[in-house]
Design a protein that fits this description.
It is an enzyme of class 5 (isomerase). The protein has about 230 residues and is an alpha/beta fold. It folds into two domains: about 110 residues, 3-Layer(aba) Sandwich (Rossmann fold); about 110 residues, 3-Layer(aba) Sandwich (Rossmann fold). It is about 55% helix and about 15% strand. It has a four-stranded parallel β-sheet, with helices on both faces. It has a three-stranded parallel β-sheet with strand order 2-1-3, sandwiched between helices. Helix 1 crosses helix 11, helix 5 crosses helix 7 and helix 5 crosses helix 11. The N and C termini lie close together (about 10 Å). About 45% of the residues are buried.
Amino acid sequence: MKTIGMIGGMSWESSKIYYQHINEMVRKELGGSHSAASVLSSVDFDEIERHSFSGDWDKIGDLMALHAKKLEAAGSGLIVLCTNTIHLVSGAITNATKVPFLHIANATGEAIKEKGMKKVALLGTKFTMENDFYTKILEEQFGLEVLIPESYDREKLQSIIYNELVKGVFSNESKEICLEIIRKMEAKGAEGAILGCTELPILIPDSEASIPTFDTTKIHAKKAVEFALS
């Protein structure tokens, strides 16, 4: 079993779910008392948040490279960045180490193609929805048509994520707002909805959405376990 290196803390609300999923999946695959060999390097999210909103992505890239090097030095056999948005600077990680890096958009694209879908909605932070680091992979490598919410709904998602979810606040009111956004995307032809913020699956149960949802946290964790056990 390869050691899974995780860069977490963005936010820790979802990082703990990564840890849970990864260990549950390893136990399911290997049985007995098995758990995952893993190393977690966790950031102070307040610093990441400040740099995100000021647009200092180079600084975030430097921080991600630093944590990736820590994971490499600790013997990690692969690196997982436990967040969607900060994949915007994933190149800083791949340039800093020789350890295989598992990109969350690649894992998500594979999961969507397995379902035979062609058109999907992407919900997440404004950084994820409005930049092309995520959608470009889905479109160019997997041939998907990616729909994003209208500006007003992007603002609502941004507010819910940064003012509530990353602080551990998961309200029914915000859940209903997100479910309504998904219904709007369904009306535009979306066959499924990518929960492209790792806190969103905590808020939105798949069973309550009008179309199938893609839990990027679980999808990414599954790909990490498959790689670690390969």
